[in-house]
């Protein structure tokens, strides 16, 4: 999630290190890294900006951009001296969206939730320890939370991520914590495993997750998971708004509303909301 005051600013990509796995191809890794950088800027980026953000040399970036321009994955705007995402990249993204047709099925529910609460509604999936925003229905309020599809946030710091993680098997939660850590994005971020497991326990009991300025100062979110036919998390939906507009009482009231909508989406997709089984000593997963 992002602060209402402006777009999310990210540090240079941690993927700037060369690929570690034996099967990784350096040129492909670099090209994808550049695409990710350009995708973050709606207005496009200059060569120097892409070079700085990607951690690659200017000559390498220019060579890769030229190749991707020939394949229409990027395009160069001469008037603005900026590189932008090309139509072939959009075509690939559209193919992903078609395969994940639950987005279309969820849209009427998301729009209705936005209209009922007047706040921004998001839908995201889990990927490699992060939540990826696939769709957003913006609030019509002047001051509102905004994030672009494709935006990412650590699972452990977001309502969407915690709503999904709460329904993972204990070893899988432990694996995420061990692999990706518990990053402190704000003074309120969860940085201790015991606190994370306690939060996930509450989410299983309540049916919704809270993000109380854990990802961005001044932003509160409530989220709930959507399940597939096997009772496993398929995605999650969330409501986000400036903290000044969400009192403690409204925070939990919105949580119940979001949870009800998540159940409705689950049912519309033929999914099953699982029964919750409390787990003792979840944190032991980190010491095993």
UniProtKB/TrEMBL annotation:
Pfam families in the record: HTH_IclR, IclR_C
Annotated SMART domains: HTH_ICLR (SM00346)
Top-level taxon: Bacteria
Biased composition (Basic residues): 1-12
Ranges for domain HTH iclR-type: 25-87
GO MF term set: DNA binding; DNA-binding transcription factor activity
Protein name: Transcriptional regulator
């Amino acid at each position: 999630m992002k602060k209402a005051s402006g777009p999310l600013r990210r540090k240079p990509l941690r993927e700037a290190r060369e690929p570690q796995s034996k099967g990784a191809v350096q040129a492909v890794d670099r090209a994808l890294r550049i695409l990710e950088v350009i995708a973050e800027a709606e207005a496009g980026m200059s060569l120097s900006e892409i070079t700085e953000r990607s951690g690659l040399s200017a000559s390498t970036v220019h060579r890769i951009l030229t190749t991707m321009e020939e394949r229409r994955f990027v395009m160069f705007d001469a008037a603005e001296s900026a590189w932008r995402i090309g139509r072939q990249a959009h075509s690939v993204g559209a193919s992903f969206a078609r395969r994940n047709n639950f987005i279309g099925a969820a849209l009427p529910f998301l729009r209705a939730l936005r209209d009922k609460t007047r706040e921004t509604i998001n839908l995201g999936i889990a990927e490699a320890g992060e939540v990826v925003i696939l769709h957003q229905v913006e609030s019509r309020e002047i001051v509102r939370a905004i994030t672009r599809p494709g935006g990412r946030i650590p699972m452990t710091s977001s309502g969407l991520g915690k709503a999904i993680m709460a329904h993972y098997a204990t070893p899988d939660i432990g694996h995420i914590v061990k692999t990706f850590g518990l990053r402190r994005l704000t003074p309120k971020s969860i940085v201790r495993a015991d606190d994370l497991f306690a939060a996930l326990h509450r989410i299983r009991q309540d049916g919704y997750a809270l993000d109380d300025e854990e990802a961005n100062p001044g932003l509160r979110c409530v989220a709930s998971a959507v399940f597939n036919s096997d009772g496993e998390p398929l995605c999650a939906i969330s409501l986000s708004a400036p903290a000044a507009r969400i009192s403690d009482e409204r925070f939990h009231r919105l949580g119940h509303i979001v949870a009800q909508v998540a159940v409705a989406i689950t049912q519309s997709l033929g999914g099953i909301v699982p029964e919750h089984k409390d787990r003792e000593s979840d944190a032991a997963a980190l010491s095993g």
